[in-house]
Amino acid sequence: MTKPERATLSVEWIGGSAKAGGKTKTYPVQHNPKELSLEKSVQLAEINIPGLDAPLQQFIRGQAEKLTIELFFDTTENGMGDDAVSVTEKTDEIYQLVKVESTSHAPPVVTFAWNKHFSGDTLDAGGSCNQLRNSFKGVVESVKQNFTLFSPKGVPLRATINLVLREYRTLKEQMDQLHLSSPDRTHSHVLAAGEDLSKLAGTYYESPADWRHIADDPDNGIEDPRRLQTGSVLTVPAITPRLP
Length: 244
Known about the structure:
It is elongated and about 90 Å long. It is mainly beta and 244 residues long. The protein has two domains: 8-178, no CATH class; 187-236, LysM domain (Membrane-bound Lytic Murein Transglycosylase D, Chain A, Roll), CATH 3.10.350.10. The strands form three sheets. The protein has a seven-stranded antiparallel sheet, with helices on one face. It has a two-stranded antiparallel sheet with strand order 4-5. The longest helix has 8 residues, at 88-95. Helix content is 11%, strand content 32%.
């Protein structure tokens, strides 16, 4: 029988917390969660134009993704008598993740990982984006503890924790992942086999007919657009986007 893989919470302690034993600490969860809940949304604005059947939808920005998990902890294997061990020895490791660090002035960054086939591990499959992942990185938004069993002396022995993580990515990470492109920005492109100027214009301008902007750029030194050398670095100059 295959041994179940344990989910983990890896914590980046900016201040090198003594309790964490260094700047990074990995906490295996005692029992794998029964379910995960992921929530992602975008902010839209409605553009009202007289005479239309419905307002136009204008994308403003993405909202932070949220991961919600419920974790179960139990220390009854040590008995319920005088030798009972408080479950808080395990739950406090999770509860501290919402506390502010003295060095960073903010809670630590946390990564939840389980199996490599985590939600998002195939986002690259269609070539539409570059946000492939096999874990969830965020900061703890909330922790809710619920103690459900106590020893005769009042020692808490069993608990559930509802943990909510809010997505965390730096500006550089987001820009590198999104690969945002716009016709009003200048780009450099390494010519691949089979590519021509029409294809480049279609990629960067969304208009293959605008290939002459690339051909006429003095940095490219193109004498014959039909004879391009694979591996050449071409400048794709900025142009004013065409109105729809």
